[in-house]
């Protein structure tokens, strides 16, 4: 293993160490990474980026985030994918390569039209979903997993029942995009419809997608969504009982409260 690969492993280890603390909470407090993302060269010329300038940090952050999804049990094997936007480019996990084998030299970058401009590995087959999000929203990062509770819920309902007020942190009731074959533009279109006004959705018989202003935020939303799906399944599985649900009006009130308070973690834990 090269020194550089060691460095990537170290970064990933540090990132996975706090997984237990952050999975299922609204914690967004990993400052160093967020700091580096803000320092990324938004709008930098593609020629400069093609040479790799400014991409090393975001790539390591992306690999660390992908490894967090595996360490937290949100993906099995190579079944999920993660991307981050840097200027006019999108860095994305490659297809079929376990996250623990990804090193600093494996950067995969594409333009918003899908043209690959950096890397020899093939981008994830779910690239159309990632690009659709970046083309239509201001998102800087996207996390897609086949997390078991989210996927289970996607087979049962067309919308996650309002079992908890943290639904508001995803923009409102979480919709389920109707099934389409993986990797297709049709799936990307159904996903965009389900994401309208939301930062997360479920994909029927497939998994979940969230986006955010940073890799940490997109990851936290995935963890939060998985937790809410698990919560509903747990409550709904008690024989002879039906979970109480919140009204859409209450979710709206919470959304206002969250935005008013800048979504600081202490405000979302009450
Ligand atoms: Zn998938």
TrEMBL record:
Record-linked InterPro entries: Aldolase_class_II_sugar_metab, Aldolase_II/adducin_N, Aldolase_II/adducin_N_sf
Keyword annotations: Lyase, Metal-binding
Keyword Manganese in record: no
Residues covered by region (Disordered): 1-47
Name used for this protein in its record: Class II aldolase/adducin family protein
Source organism: Streptomyces tremellae
Residue span, Class II aldolase/adducin N-terminal domain: 60-233
Ranges of Basic and acidic residues composition bias in the record: 30-39
Compositionally biased spans, kind Low complexity: 1-29
SUPFAM superfamilies attached to this UniProt entry: AraD/HMP-PK domain-like
Lineage: superkingdom: Bacteria
């Amino acid at each position: 293993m090269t020194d550089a690969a060691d460095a990537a492993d170290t970064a990933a280890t540090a990132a996975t160490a706090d997984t237990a603390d952050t999975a299922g909470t609204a914690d967004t407090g990993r400052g160093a990474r967020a700091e580096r993302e803000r320092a990324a060269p938004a709008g930098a010329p593609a020629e400069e980026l093609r040479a790799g300038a400014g991409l090393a940090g975001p790539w390591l952050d992306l690999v660390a985030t992908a490894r967090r999804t595996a360490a937290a049990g949100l993906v099995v094997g190579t079944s999920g994918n993660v991307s981050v936007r840097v200027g006019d480019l999108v860095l994305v996990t490659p297809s079929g390569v376990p996250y623990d084998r990804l090193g600093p030299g494996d950067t995969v970058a594409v333009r918003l039209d899908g043209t690959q401009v950096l890397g020899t590995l093939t981008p994830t087959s779910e690239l159309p979903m990632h690009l659709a999000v970046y083309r239509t929203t201001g998102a800087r990062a996207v996390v897609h997993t086949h997390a078991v509770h989210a996927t289970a819920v996607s087979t049962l309902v067309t919308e996650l029942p309002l079992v908890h007020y943290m639904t508001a942190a995803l923009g409102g009731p979480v919709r389920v995009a109707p099934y389409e074959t993986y990797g297709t533009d049709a799936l990307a279109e159904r996903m965009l419809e389900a994401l309208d006004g939301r930062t997360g959705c479920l994909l029927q018989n497939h998994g979940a997608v969230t986006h955010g202003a940073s890799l940490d935020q997109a990851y936290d939303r995935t963890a939060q969504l998985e937790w809410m799906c698990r919560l509903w399944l747990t409550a709904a599985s008690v024989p002879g009982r039906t979970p109480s649900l919140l009204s859409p009006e209450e979710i709206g009130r919470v959304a206002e409260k969250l935005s008013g308070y800048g979504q600081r973690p202490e405000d979302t834990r009450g």
